[in-house]
Amino acid sequence: MERVPHNLQGLFNFCMSAGTDFSASAQQMDPETARWLREALESMTVDLVEEMRKNIAIIIENLHQTDEGATAKITESVDNLIDLTEDVNLADIFLKIGGLELLLTLFDQPPSPLYCQTGNLLANIVQNNEEAQKIAVNNGLLEVSLKLFSLQDDKENLRGIFAGISALVRSSLLCQQQFVASHGFQVLFEVLDRLTASEASIKQHTRFLNKVNFFLSCMCQELTDEQLREWELFFGPYCGRLYIHN
């Protein structure tokens, strides 16, 4: 019996060598080989929830460090969390293992390039997830996101935070009501007014403006008549300027 492989390449080689003779009739795997294969797979199984916990811990440990090494660790760990929470099951678990507090902490940092990553992480957590949207809104993440969004000039931070806001608000009546109550339209159009003040700025932010157009279009279809009246208080002065550059 060969030794249990310690990496995926070793396991791949075993499977390839075991399956090269296609003319051979299928035979039941003997108990020793079955046990060996099971142990090989178990030895390479990664506990993804534990991976999320580790990345959260790394971020917290390095958050108040100023050296480049700490910044790199934080950036890598947030990226890891973004990748992991692409899985909707892990996204649900994220909020239960300190993820909510982490999002609020990251958004509470001084002006930071992490805002873009944090917005994207938030988007993963709440996208098409009504329960996660409710938890996030009830804990103030919408208000925090809107406040940060209103202060941004960096296009990457604008894009990331807006991704979080968009995912948080769309398809959720509760979040839409909170968006209106928090003057979300006013915040959005004030940012748009700033970004469309010149042709140069419009050109620089074209992709972002197109995303906003799509968001507004979706909101038009989802909002109630009463909510749309709130929209119209701010929408008129910006409509022509925003859509003419599509």
Offer a few descriptive terms.
246 residues, Leucine-rich Repeat Variant, ARM-like, globular, mainly alpha, single chain, adenyl-nucleotide exchange factor activity
Summarize the structure in words:
The protein has 15 helices and no strands. By secondary structure, it is mainly α. The chain folds into two domains: 8-43, no CATH class; 95-243, Leucine-rich Repeat Variant, CATH 1.25.10. Helix 3 (48-62) runs antiparallel to helix 4 (68-84) and helix 9 runs antiparallel to helix 10 (155-169).
What layout of secondary structure does this protein have?
Layout: H1 8-18, H2 31-43, H3 48-62, H4 68-84, H5 88-94, H6 99-107, H7 114-126, H8 130-138, H9 141-150, H10 155-169, H11 173-181, H12 184-195, H13 199-204, H14 206-222, H15 225-243
Helix pairs in contact: 3-4, 4-7, 7-10, 9-10, 9-12, 12-15
CATH topology of the largest domain: Leucine-rich Repeat Variant
- What's the main sheet like? none
Number of strands: 0
Query: Helical element count?
Result: 15
Percent range for helical residues? over 70%
Residue windows where pLDDT falls under 50 for at least 5 positions: 240-246
Integer tally of domains: 2
- The CATH class of the largest domain is identified as Mainly Alpha
How much beta, percentage-wise? under 5%
Q: What is the CATH architecture term of the largest domain?
A: Alpha Horseshoe
Summarize model confidence as the mean pLDDT. 82
Separation of termini? 65 Å
In short:
The chain has 246 residues and is mostly helical. It has helices at residues 8-18, 31-43, 48-62, 68-84, 88-94, 99-107, 114-126, 130-138, 141-150, 155-169, 173-181, 184-195, 199-204, 206-222, 225-243.
